[in-house]
Amino acid sequence: MGKVIVIDHPLIQHKLTFIRDKNTGSKGFREMVKEVSMLMGYEVTRDMALEDIEIETPICKTTSKVLTGKKLGIVPILRAGLGMVEGILELIPAAKVGHIGLYRDPETLQPVEYYCKLPSDVHERQLVVLDPMLATGGSAVAAINFLKERGATNIKFVCLIASKHGIEVLQKHHDDVDIYVAAIDDELNDHAYIVPGLGDAGDRLYGTK
Ligand code: PRP
Ligand code: URA
After folding, report:
1. Which of 126, 148, 160, 209 is the most buried (most CB within 10 A)?
2. Catalytic member of 20, 30, 104, 204
3. Among this protein's residues, is 131 annotated catalytic?
4. C-alpha 147 – ligand 1 centre gap (Å)
5. 47 among known catalytic residues
6. Is any atom of ligand 2 closer than 6 Å to the C-beta of 206?
7. Per residue, what are the HEC states of the chain?
8. pLDDT tens-digit series, residues 83-134
9. Taking the CB of residue 43, how many other CB atoms lie within 10 A of it?
10. What is the predicted pLDDT for the residue at 204?
11. 178 is an active site residue
12. Cα–ligand 2 centroid distance for 178 (angstroms)
């Protein structure tokens, strides 16, 4: 079973409060989503492989660690996942970025795919799927199905807020995927919005309604 890693560092909890607050406008919302994503990135990249290299300090020769450069790919789920990309790229600027376009049909609540562009070598990469919200789990399950159909085997899922139900659904369908989350909320409302949540992440990021 994949792990659920709750990253509840005080800085993240503090910023998440302002992300949740309906009085935070799009500019502040975007900035804080970026900052929280970057802070979460520390934990998401904790298991990156290192190797020793020889260097010389001003004092003496020594061996020291550097990243092995194992290939990483980040995959935001459009549109709201885009808000998390910059924060992660600040930590790992060499990562390739793939995009999967899905929206939740407001009637059926089922994810509908409208775009996909991925690095050609997804099967060789550690992939990090980004989406601020894991509500019913439908979008995350569909995106990860998509990646696996294209050969991906090594996938992490990162979101800001997950419902308990969404986590159960994602684990049921993809028990090999670790889930990184800043907060877990108890409930979904009748429209499958997370309660208390933060509202519609895409609309709040981009000022649409
Ligand atoms: C939101 C969110 C997730 C999805 C989560 O996207 O960004 O992708 O809903 O809900 P689920 O777990 O029930 O599938 P939305 O469909 O609103 O599209 P948008 O990002 O384009 O606004
Ligand atoms: N999508 C969102 O943007 N917010 C929710 O609460 C659920 C799905």
Report:
1. 160
2. 104
3. no
4. 17
5. no
6. no
7. CCCEEECCCHHHHHHHHHHHCCCCCHHHHHHHHHHHHHHHHHHHCCCCCEEEEEEECCCCEEEEEEECCCCEEEEEEECCCHHHHHHHHHHCCCCEECEEEEEECCCCCCEEEEEEECCCCHHHCEEEEECCEECCCHHHHHHHHHHHHCCCCEEEEEEEEEEHHHHHHHHHHCCCCEEEEEEEECEECCCCCEECCCCCHHHHHHCCC
8. 999 999 999 999 999 999 998 888 888 889 999 999 999 999 999 999 999 9
9. 16
10. 98
11. no
12. 21
Q: Looking at ligand 2, which atom is closest to the CA of residue 80?
A: 3
Tens digits of residue pLDDT in 151-191 = 999 999 999 999 999 999 999 999 999 999 999 999 999 99
Ligand 2 centroid from CA 202, angstroms: 8
Query: Catalytic annotation on 185?
Result: no
Q: Which of 45, 150, 178, 203 is catalytic?
A: 203
